[in-house]
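Priority: low. Protein: DUF3107 domain-containing protein. Input follows.
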Amino acid sequence: MDVRIGIQNSPREIGFETDQPAAEVEQAVSDAVASGSVLRLQDAKGSVYVVPTAALAYVEIGSEESRRVGFVA
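Result:
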């Protein structure tokens, strides 16, 4: 699943793929915003992203459906 995180006052965003289900990512974002701490997510390759919630502009959670490759009849 694709995750994109927008950072306030930054023209770039953080984008990565994760193996976590969408509900788990959404819960992590909700918990971090509610507590005012940091958002911590891990990508499919094992890298960890830590973003302070005060700097979050948005978090876009993509679908868990895999992309189709090739021609569809």
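The chain has one helix and five strands. The mean pLDDT is 89.
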